[in-house]
Design brief:
42% of the residues lie in helices and 21% in strands. By secondary structure, the protein is an alpha+beta fold. The strands form three sheets. Strands 1, 2, 3, 4, 5, 6, 7, 8, 9, 10 and 11 form an eleven-stranded mixed β-sheet that branches. Helix 2 (17-44) packs antiparallel against helix 9 (275-306), helix 2 (17-44) packs across helix 12 (365-394) and helix 9 (275-306) packs antiparallel against helix 14 (407-444). It is globular, with a radius of gyration of 32 Å.
């Protein structure tokens, strides 16, 4: 009988070819979109789940509105012990620093992650020595030995027998001896590492260089714990030897396993896709499935109505309810199986692109098993709906099936399904048009600066950037190079920030200080980006450090128009510092995300910050259409 049912289903697919193709492709596209996005969501939400008691590990952060972030995960060394001693809910804590280790191999510079753990981190995070002796990490003292993971050892030396070998950090030109080979967390973590070394040894309250993890006791109400921590915010964090008022007022506790889905914490400098976009993509895939399913169900029901006489004849000939339901469901099952095969083919074709854009690095065959699981789950749900509907429909009496019934109900069903699909399609069209208009606007709107045909090169090593400026200037694609004394306004922007709690014209001080971005600038910098001066004069080589330009929106937040702002002063939280005096107002330039409000910004004379020049960039312009070749030539150099 199964062969008979499959033969009938296959004939129906061939009989309604166009409808079958539309249904199969619609379901396949929806299944592929939903499966990939569901897997992506699962991947993002399972970072660091391999740690022992991962569900009880939390990253401690403090409020920090600098550079558009709502919180920062860098904390002082002394905070860990303070929290352990003051809150009985905290079972343990650990601290570590993170940096990049630059290694030269085969004329290529490799950037490998390095952790500088405190002895508490080695204890709590189960870092194991596979070869050698890692006791030098537990000593807590400066040492020229480091530990390396097996993967990094094979990458650099081709073997794991590396004890006693040396490796040089090209950034500082410092040589280290490998003292141990240690276990690795892999890349599915917020804090990967290829090397382990000794920390900086800064143990006070004033150096915010550590990540602090706490392990809470089982059954702890974390929200209640956070309330207690914020109700007794330590005075050591509200002030420092650098600032009378740091502006810090509250803690944040984020589950270690959920950091990738947390937008408030500043963790991924290269994050290009926020977690909510992934969930929206999954919702779109779900809507495609719903539309394709309703479309197929509408066609299926219409086709079913034309087969009433066939069903009646089968009942007269002795066919039972179960056999009729099986026959009808085989049609749908064959369609779903076809959509499943096409969907998996689409997943296979899209997988390389998907992995590249999603930044998933450790994909293996288990990924396909997960995707297949998502597709089968959706298919089972759809199959259950069809089986239930067919069962209820066929449960009517033979007499009922012999009559056509109420034709209006069939018309209402078709109209309703068409209206629903049309509504969803119109919504998709509207959203697509809106996004295209937004992109057109962003590409053509006056942003207050010209960024087209401009690029920047940074080399975070101990090199003379003036030499590299001359090398880049000699390229035939390059039309202009300015001296390497600035940071690019787009991509980097501010290199530091201030806290301002007063300005000319206001009485007293602000209870909540304002954060100001500080940008290195000069006349050649402003000309490079074609920025516009609305009043006053540019910051130039003759300007003092306290003589600054501000943006128009910053001036208006202070209650000044561009002309009134010239000569006004901005007062630091630390009143021992000389206040900044505004000597010019610059037209607003959108150097941050277009969805974010322009920050308060001051432009300072870069020549007063010469100690920063070793960390500055080469800014240059290139001829239209030559970027790919220009970038290739620079990377070769």
């Amino acid at each position: 009988m199964i062969a008979h049912y499959l033969k009938i289903a296959w004939r129906n697919l061939l009989k309604y070819r166009m409808q079958s193709v539309v249904s199969i492709l619609g379901l396949a596209v929806g299944l592929a979109c939903f499966a990939l996005s569901a897997f992506w969501i699962h991947y993002e939400m399972t970072y660091d789940t391999f740690h022992r008691d991962a569900d009880r590990l939390y990253l401690v952060g403090v409020n920090d509105d600098s550079f558009g972030g709502s919180s920062a995960s860098f904390t002082p060394y002394a905070l860990g012990r303070y929290l352990k001693e003051h809150y009985s809910e905290i079972e343990d804590y650990c601290l570590f620093e993170a940096e990049t280790f630059f290694v030269l191999k085969d004329n290529r510079m490799l950037e490998l992650p390095m952790l500088l753990p405190d002895t508490t981190a080695l204890r709590m995070l189960d870092i194991r020595a596979l070869e050698g002796d890692e006791s030098f990490l537990r000593a807590g003292t400066t040492d020229n030995r480091i530990a390396i993971t097996e993967k990094a050892a094979k990458q650099l030396f081709g073997t794991t027998d590396v004890i006693g070998q040396t490796v040089t950090n090209a950034n500082w030109n410092k040589e280290y001896t490998i003292g141990a080979v240690v276990s690795d967390w892999g890349v599915h973590t917020n804090f990967p590492y290829a090397f382990l070394g000794n920390g900086s040894g800064r143990t006070g309250w004033d150096d915010y260089t550590y990540r602090t993890l706490v392990k809470v006791k089982p059954g702890t109400d974390v929200s209640r714990l956070l309330e207690k921590m914020n109700a007794h915010f330590p005075e050591e964090l509200t002030k420092s030897r650098y600032q009378e008022n740091t502006g810090l007022t509250r803690f944040y506790l984020e589950p270690l396993t959920g950091l990738s889905a947390t937008e408030g914490f500043i963790l991924k400098n290269n994050q290009t896709v926020q977690f909510r976009y992934i969930t929206w993509f999954a919702a779109v895939g779900g809507l495609i499935i719903v539309c394709a399913f309703i479309n197929y169900l509408t066609i299926y029901i219409d086709r079913f109505r034309t087969r009433r006489r066939e069903m009646v004849l089968r009942q007269v000939c002795g066919a039972g309810l179960r056999s009729l339901v099986t026959l009808l469901c085989t049609d749908f099952l064959l369609t779903v199986l076809a959509a499943l095969v096409v969907g998996m083919v689409l997943v296979e074709l899209l997988m390389p692109i998907f992995l590249r854009y999603s930044l998933i690095q450790d994909a293996d065959f288990s990924n396909y098993r997960s995707i297949l699981f998502y597709i089968l789950s959706v298919s089972v749900v759809m199959m259950a709906i069809v089986v239930l509907w067919v069962w209820l429909f066929q449960k009517r009496s033979l007499h009922g099936n012999m009559h056509t019934g109420n034709a209006l109900s069939g018309i209402a069903w078709r109209k309703g399904s068409v209206i629903l699909q049309l509504t969803v399609c119109m919504a998709f069209i509207f959203c697509t048009v809106a996004m295209q208009l937004q992109l057109h606007h962003l590409r053509n709107v006056d942003t207050g600066m010209d960024y087209r045909g401009r690029a920047a090169v940074s080399i975070w090593m101990n090199v003379d950037m003036n030499v590299w400026a001359e090398k880049i200037k000699a390229l035939p694609m390059v039309t202009e190079v300015i001296r390497p004394a600035y940071w690019p306004l787009l991509g980097e922007g501010a290199y530091s920030s201030y806290l301002i709690d007063g300005y000319t014209g206001m009485e007293g001080r602000l209870e909540q200080p304002l954060t100001f971005d500080e940008v290195l600038a000069g006349e050649e910098f402003f000309r490079f980006y074609d920025m516009q001066l609305l009043s006053g004069e540019w910051v130039s080589a003759k300007s003092e450090y306290c003589q600054v330009n501000i943006m128009e929106s910053t001036a208006r937040r202070m209650g000044w128009n561009p002309e009134e702002a010239v000569g006004k002063q901005l007062f630091f939280v630390n009143r021992e510092q000389e206040p900044m005096t505004v000597i010019g107002v610059v037209k607003d330039c959108a150097y941050k995300s277009p969805t974010a409000e322009l920050p308060n910004t001051v432009f300072v004379n870069t020549d007063q910050m010469k100690w920063m020049h070793a960390r500055c960039f080469v800014l240059f312009k290139y001829r239209p259409g030559t970027w790919d070749e220009c970038r290739r030539r620079i990377e070769e150099m």
